[in-house]
């Protein structure tokens, strides 16, 4: 009987997390959905949560298991699940042992990395999920504590939310750059928080809200939306 290995498609903001392996030698430099082996008597959901906590220092919950089981060599078989991050997570770092690099990939970027063969059969379903993901809204704050509070409150309400440092067009001084909260929450929920915490909604229609690193144009007038 083959031992079960589980992998997590960690989805956030319309992108999935990929991890580059450092070992064994035949897998080094190639990419996978992070995870690990299920121990005897352990539920697959619990094993996946344990492995991601050990590898990435994050807490997750399984949304659903993806279709199919893939043989891995002669002794193992792989299942993969869609998972979401829970708790306080703003920046993920590789463990430096099993993985040396992490990337967030959109549905049109999945072919940019060299995936390990067992992970490849799950990518079509992952891409479909990313295409169906709710659009990501941005709330922008000049105070880091305000951004962290907004993200924390949105996650407490059951939405995906995380903080990223913004870049300002033409500005090189990192100390002047604001923080953006990216979330799949309804606009009204984010609107209330930016109004309360003195931020603004980034509402420009032409902006790709799933992109990371696009310079942010500062508003010349407040963009906060007030209720009549």
UniProtKB/TrEMBL annotation:
Keywords: DNA damage, DNA repair, DNA replication, Hydrolase, Magnesium, Metal-binding, Mutator protein
Cofactor dependence: Mg(2+)
Reaction equations catalysed: 8-oxo-dGTP + H2O = 8-oxo-dGMP + diphosphate + H(+)
Domain Nudix hydrolase: 1-127
EC number(s) recorded for this UniProt protein: 3.6.1.55
Region annotation Disordered: where it falls in the sequence: 205-228
InterPro entries noted in UniProt: MutT-like (IPR047127), Nudix_hydrolase (IPR020476), NUDIX_hydrolase-like_dom_sf (IPR015797), NUDIX_hydrolase_dom (IPR000086)
Protein family per UniProt: Belongs to the Nudix hydrolase family.
Protein name: 8-oxo-dGTP diphosphatase
Organism, scientific name: Nocardioides abyssi
């Amino acid at each position: 009987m083959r031992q079960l290995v589980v992998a997590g498609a960690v989805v956030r903001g319309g992108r999935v997390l990929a991890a580059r392996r450092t070992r064994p030698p035949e897998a080094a430099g190639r990419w996978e959905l992070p995870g690990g082996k299920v121990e005897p008597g352990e539920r697959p959901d619990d094993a996946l949560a344990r492995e991601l906590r050990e590898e990435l220092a994050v807490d997750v919950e399984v949304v659903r298991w993806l279709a199919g089981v893939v043989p891995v060599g002669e002794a193992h078989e792989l299942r993969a699940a869609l998972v979401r991050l829970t708790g306080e997570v703003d920046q993920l770092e590789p463990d430096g042992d099993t993985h040396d690099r992490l990337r967030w990939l959109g549905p049109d970027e999945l072919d940019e990395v060299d995936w390990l063969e067992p992970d490849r059969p799950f990518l079509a379903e992952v891409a479909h999920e990313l295409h169906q993901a709710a659009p990501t809204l941005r709330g922008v704050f000049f105070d880091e504590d305000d951004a962290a509070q907004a993200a924390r409150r949105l996650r407490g309400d059951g939405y995906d939310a995380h903080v990223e440092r913004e870049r300002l067009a033409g500005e090189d001084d990192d100390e002047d750059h604001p923080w953006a909260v990216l979330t799949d929450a309804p606009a009204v929920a984010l609107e209330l928080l930016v109004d309360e915490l003195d931020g603004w909604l980034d509402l420009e229609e032409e902006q790709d809200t799933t992109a990371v690193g696009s310079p942010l144009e500062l508003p010349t007038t407040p963009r906060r939306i007030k209720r009549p």
